[in-house]
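[Automated response] Your request has been received and processed.

Submitted sequence:
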Amino acid sequence: MKGKGETSFPYTVCGAGGVRTKNHIDNILRFPFLNRIKPLGVSMYKIRISNDGDQEQAIAIFNYYIENSMAAYPQKSLPAQAWNFIKSKCIGGTALVAEDAEGIVVGFALLKSFMELDTFADTADIGYFIHPDHVGKGLGKLFLARLEEAARSFGITTLVANVSSENSDSIAFHERLGFIKCGEIPGVGKKLGKTFNVLWYYKNIN
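Generated structure:
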């Protein structure tokens, strides 16, 4: 989420051409819930499964939060190629991106394995990052709805999210949408000259 004093940033738009079109059709067949896109205000975001052409745009958004906030935990910016590693951690390839009306990627959302053990197969870890110019327009809520639908299709019954104590917007977002705080680890993170806690939230979706 966008913090006080943070500004927007430019990033390179990578055209995907026919690959994007084919992947979109394939993804609708694999994930029928992606075909139900709702208009938000005067604009519309299209949610789809990420493809290889998204890596520069998606990582640029992630790097913004790495460099300017506690919302993303890495200390240093990541190369575009890191997107493939991030996607590899997602359940059933559920790495979603949102496009605006011009086809530009303005956010992403992830459904990840929780602790990467079969013991926790019914639980998933979620995360999302949105271009600061699109924060507060309902995209986070739309992402969460899509992640919940995808999770249910995989038999997942519990979603888990961890949030920095410095990320008040994300804390409010999760609590407003039904997540329950279940734990807090004090002073476990250090970034940008500050020490922060990590808060854990869960939501039952069965």
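Summary generated for your ticket: The longest strand covers residues 180-191. Helices lie at 17-30, 55-68, 82-88, 139-153, 168-176.
If you did not submit this request, please reply to this message.
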